[in-house]
């Protein structure tokens, strides 16, 4: 049977979710899918739009997995706006003049920002806050303007205000209603929110309507309010609510609601059975849902219906929200305004601390109907579950909002029913998490990967962790992070024991805190921790036997038992003379030579007994060990920066060398890679490193916890516009905190993903010194830096150590006679097993 | 004792040549052995060839214990071999040759089939 033609009109967050759901159900077998997207970019995270201002790129915000369209053979047409749908002929026509036939159409055109009909609203530098293009235009306008104003004090309006504030403009918010976020919070909450936002330097004008916008005296515009009040401003952003983008539906005479929106049934089918509508364009039982989670639910329902499954129906959605607005936590749950007949409220307010909490309780006093939280939304997860699952309140209702009252009814994850929705963005229930745990998920990272829980806004991550811990415990999985059978401790605990107990050898630690002889897991781990703390030479007698072969022979063992040699080339900068030395050594010992990804040279095929003599030549020529074998700092990659590049803003090579020299030899839970880029073109690929530094005209931007390799992760922007001194201080603290708290062999990316509180917590600890350990971390790093030694220099100067490099203890002049090589592309490599047999036969 | 099998003891090195908790490679007329000294001062010897990688590297493996068994871990792919018996813990079908070791005064001797 020929495939049917499916057209998806609009490719936003909901459209992308629809595609993912459809292909997961095998939709490609029945449909040829074409996506028509009016924007120049495929789906991106509109919820995270504000982060575009704080350094995220359009790529970071993209929601489309790489290769998604190619893999599923879906046609994507960008910059393609649909002009009309001809329902009789079953075709659509586009602005590119194309006419496309269809069997089914899905409308996911979303909404557009409502611009109030104020005279002058179409002047230059008046924007809406909706697309990346809008943001680019705001950024351009902010370069010449000084004052920015947002019309509308709702959720998106405050996001827009944050954006203007971040762009360095004097920022105002003008709201017609008497309070901010009128839909979600009450008067007290709104008042407190206003105070907090004004403290941050944004002026809020409530109960203020704009009559017209005219030329200003000092600024581009003058906004005239009633009562002779006015405000001068250069940039205006309208954020006064949304309206469904329903013209296509209107033009082809689908059923439309009185105030807009394409009417859909419980399966998201419109009045034409061949056309679906999902997301913010769809009107369900007279309501438009302006949040992403209900849109996702509609996407799932519509995709299932298209595939002939009608069990799932859209049944409305909970509009509870939690967000951080300019650093202020705000949450709204259920009946936040207490509209239910007979309900009563219990309120806690602390103006000095800036906290307001209200719980709306049912007439019977047993159920939570709604809540408002401002300033402290830590209880959001608990309260939401109580409300959504209509659970009986565990005790006195006032304890729901009272601060730290004894016996405050902390709702354990245990108490939740399996149907409880934990992640509303991705509709993951407690039952889904339990199934994933039964399937082998052991960490929050695992759950995130297989269920998408906490993968969108992250608001539920603490709850996900609670469910995980309690479920693992229930299953009798001893939540055991002991490093091995010899030590009943995690790596973090071992680090602590070593630090606090001033323990300097493995034997001492084993005697005091362990059992047995140790093994190939705990010995290298403890050796690594000892080196992080005390930085003794790794081949000192008490430590030598603990080292994995790579650390013992200070090289990387290859598949035939020989080693590779990687001298340090800080920042990738090398003189011709030193490069010639590398070439001569490689030639003399017939070493296979390859340039590494970290901008250095790797020499392969050195036999163990050759290592000291080769390194003697290298050390004499001024080289140091590159620690390519250690769980330690590898390289700091750099682009050439202002040294030569016509676009270079700062001296990236100089900084890379400074950073590499500072942290070289630092032993850590896993290898550490860094990079420094001299401008935002980012040629050093710093955002794929554990620590990435990018020069800007105002200083250095620091990114952390990126990764390439098996599980790529974009680094997070950690701090902006740092001076040289601030940069070093921040990296010092960051690295030492990682070394202090990470698990064995845990890269910074996974470490951050499993860190409770995530990036915000990490920023608090490192930048705001919330644990008061900043000085200590810096001092510990200083010790490591001051005690640096080149391990190869120390080794070749110690005849006893050099002796250990002999292949045979009894015939020291002999080499391993079992090695066999094949020449390929002008160099040698170890023979494979089948080649080896041929070689032996020939001999 | 089975008097039919005769062994030849061969002097290898002095006790101090092997650090406690490490191994060294030994050249034998018939091939290569790995000689280990455990933390408590006992000596063991196995084949030096790692049967999984066919490289002569077992002398460079880490020593340790798993339960009450003393083992060496291959430095390449991390399989464990029992020092007493040569048995591979991860693969029942793999067993290394064990060479008897004795200490005569300060000298370590290895027995090889005569």
In whole angstroms, the N-to-C terminal distance of chain A is 64 Å
Shape of chain A: globular
CATH superfamily of chain B: Rieske [2Fe-2S] iron-sulphur domain
Q: What's the CATH architecture name of chain B?
A: 3-layer Sandwich
The rounded distance between the terminal residues' Cα atoms of chain B is: 16 Å
**Biggest β-sheet of chain A, characterized?**
5 strands, parallel
Which consecutive residue ranges of chain B, at least 5 long each, have pLDDT under 50?
none
| SSE-based structural type of chain A | alpha/beta
Share in β-strands of chain A: 15-25%
- The total of beta strands of chain B comes to 12
Number of helices of chain A: 27
Rg from alpha-carbon coordinates of chain A: 31 Å
CATH class bucket of the domain at 4-112 and 244-306 in chain A: Alpha Beta
Q: How confident overall, as mean pLDDT of chain B?
A: 91
* Most extensive chain-chain interface: A-B, 36 and 37 residues
| Contiguous uncertain segments of 5+ residues of chain A | 405-410
The pLDDT mean of chain A sits at 89
* General shape of chain B: globular
The biggest sheet of chain B, with number of strands, parallel, antiparallel or mixed sense and barrel status, is: 4 strands, antiparallel
What does the model show?
Chain A is built from 27 helices and 38 strands. Chain A is α/β, with parallel strands linked by helices and 843 residues long. Chain A is globular. About 1% of the residues of chain A have low confidence. The two termini of chain B are 16 Å apart. Chain B has 114 residues and is mainly β. In chain B, β2 and β3 form a beta hairpin. Helices cover 0% and strands 50% of the residues of chain B. Chain B contains no helices and twelve strands. Chain B has one domain: Rieske Iron-sulfur Protein. Chain B has a four-stranded antiparallel beta sheet with strand order 2-3-4-10, with no helix packed on it. In chain B, strands 1-12-11 form a three-stranded antiparallel beta sheet, with no helix packed on it. A three-stranded antiparallel beta sheet of chain B has the order 7-8-9, with no helix packed on it.
């Amino acid at each position: 049977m020929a495939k049917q033609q499916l057209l998806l009109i609009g490719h936003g967050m909901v459209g992308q979710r629809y595609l993912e759901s459809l292909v997961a159900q095998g939709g490609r077998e029945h449909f040829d899918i074409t996506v028509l997207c009016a924007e120049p970019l495929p789906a991106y995270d509109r919820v995270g739009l504000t982060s575009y201002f704080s350094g995220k790129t359009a790529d970071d915000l993209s929601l489309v997995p790489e290769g998604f369209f190619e893999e599923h053979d879906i046609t994507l047409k960008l910059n393609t706006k649909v002009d009309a749908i001809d329902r009789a002929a079953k075709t659509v026509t586009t602005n590119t003049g194309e006419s496309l036939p269809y069997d089914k159409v899905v409308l996911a055109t979303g909404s557009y920002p409502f611009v109030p009909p104020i005279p002058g609203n179409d002047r230059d530098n008046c924007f809406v806050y909706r697309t990346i293009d809008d943001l680019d235009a705001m950024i351009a306008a902010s370069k010449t303007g000084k004052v920015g104003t947002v019309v509308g004090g709702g959720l998106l309006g405050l996001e827009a205000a944050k954006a203007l504030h971040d762009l360095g403009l004097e920022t105002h918010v003008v709201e017609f209603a008497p309070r901010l976020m009128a839909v979600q919070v009450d008067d007290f909450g709104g008042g407190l929110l206003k105070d907090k936002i004004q403290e941050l330097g944004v002026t809020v004008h409530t109960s203020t309507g704009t009559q017209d916008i005219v030329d200003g005296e000092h600024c581009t515009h003058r906004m005239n309010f009633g009562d002779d009040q006015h405000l001068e401003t250069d940039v205006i952003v309208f954020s006064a609510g949304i309206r469904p983008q329903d013209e296509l539906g209107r033009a082809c005479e689908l059923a439309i609601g009185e105030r807009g929106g394409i009417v859909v049934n419980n399966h998201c089918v419109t009045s034409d059975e061949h056309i679906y509508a999902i997301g913010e364009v769809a009107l369900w039982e007279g309501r438009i849902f302006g949040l992403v989670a209900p849109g996702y639910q509609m996407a799932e329902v519509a995709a299932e219906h298209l595939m002939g499954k009608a069990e799932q129906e859209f049944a409305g959605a909970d509009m509870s929200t939690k967000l951080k607005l300019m650093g202020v936590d705000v949450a709204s749950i259920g009946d936040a305004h207490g509209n239910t007949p007979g309900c009563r409220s219990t309120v806690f307010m602390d103006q000095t601390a800036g906290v307001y909490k209200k719980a709306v309780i049912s007439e019977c006093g047993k159920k939570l109907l709604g809540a408002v939280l401002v300033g402290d939304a830590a209880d959001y997860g608990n309260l939401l579950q109580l409300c959504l699952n209509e659970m009986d309140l565990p005790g006195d209702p006032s304890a729901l909002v009272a601060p730290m009252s004894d016996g405050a009814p902390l709702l354990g994850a245990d108490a939740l029913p399996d149907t409880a929705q934990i992640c509303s963005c991705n509709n993951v229930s407690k039952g889904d998490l339990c199934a994933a745990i039964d399937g082998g998920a052991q960490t929050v990272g695992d759950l995130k990967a297989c269920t998408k829980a906490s993968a969108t806004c992250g608001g539920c991550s603490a709850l996900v962790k609670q469910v995980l811990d309690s479920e693992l415990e229930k299953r009798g999985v001893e939540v055991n992070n002991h490093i091995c059978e010899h030590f009943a401790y995690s790596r973090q605990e071992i680090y602590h024991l070593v630090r606090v107990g001033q323990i300097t050898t493995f034997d001492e630690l084993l005697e005091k805190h362990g059992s047995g002889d140790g093994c190939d897991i705990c010995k290298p781990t403890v050796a690594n921790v000892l080196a992080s703390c005390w930085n003794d030479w790794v081949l000192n007698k008490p430590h030598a036997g603990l080292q994995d072969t790579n650390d013992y022979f200070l090289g990387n063992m290859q598949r035939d038992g020989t080693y590779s040699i990687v001298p340090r080339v800080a920042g990738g900068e090398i003189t011709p003379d030193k490069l010639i030395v590398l070439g001569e050594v490689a030639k003399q010992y017939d070493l296979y030579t390859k340039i590494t990804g970290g901008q250095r040279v790797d020499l392969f095929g050195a036999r163990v007994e050759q290592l000291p003599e080769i390194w003697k030549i290298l050390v004499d020529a001024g080289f140091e060990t590159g620690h390519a074998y250690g769980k330690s700092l590898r390289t700091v990659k750099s682009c050439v920066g202002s040294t030569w590049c016509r676009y270079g803003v700062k001296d990236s090579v100089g900084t890379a060398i400074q950073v590499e020299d500072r942290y070289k030899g630092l032993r850590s839970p896993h290898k550490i890679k860094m990079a420094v880029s001299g401008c935002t073109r980012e040629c050093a690929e710093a955002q794929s490193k554990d620590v990435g530094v990018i020069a800007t005209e105002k200083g250095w931007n620091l990114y952390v916890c990126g990764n390439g390799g098996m599980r790529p992760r974009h680094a997070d922007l950690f701090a902006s516009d740092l001076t040289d001194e601030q940069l070093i201080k921040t990296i010092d603290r960051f690295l030492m905190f990682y070394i202090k708290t990470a698990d064995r062999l845990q890269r910074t990316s996974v470490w951050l993903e499993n860190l409770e509180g995530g990036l915000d917590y990490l920023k608090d600890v490192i930048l705001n010194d919330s644990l008061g350990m900043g000085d200590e971390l810096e001092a510990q790093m200083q010790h490591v830096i001051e005690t640096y030694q080149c391990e190869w220099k120390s080794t070749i100067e110690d005849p006893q150590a050099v002796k250990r490099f002999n292949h045979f203890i009894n015939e020291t002049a002999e080499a391993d006679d079992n090695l066999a090589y094949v020449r390929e592309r002008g160099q040698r490599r170890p023979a494979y097993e089948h080649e080896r047999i041929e070689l032996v036969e020939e001999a | 004792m089975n008097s039919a099998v005769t062994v030849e003891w061969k002097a290898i090195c002095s006790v101090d040549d092997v650090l406690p908790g490490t191994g060294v490679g030994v050249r034998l007329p018939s091939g290569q052995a790995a000689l280990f000294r455990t933390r408590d001062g006992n000596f063991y010897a196995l084949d030096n060839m790692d049967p999984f990688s066919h490289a002569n590297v077992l002398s460079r493996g880490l020593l340790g214990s798993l339960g009450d068994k003393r083992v060496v871990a291959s430095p390449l792919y991390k399989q464990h071999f029992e020092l007493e018996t040569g048995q591979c813990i991860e693969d029942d079908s793999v067993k290394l040759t064990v060479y008897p070791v004795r200490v005569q005064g300060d000298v370590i001797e290895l027995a090889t089939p005569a």
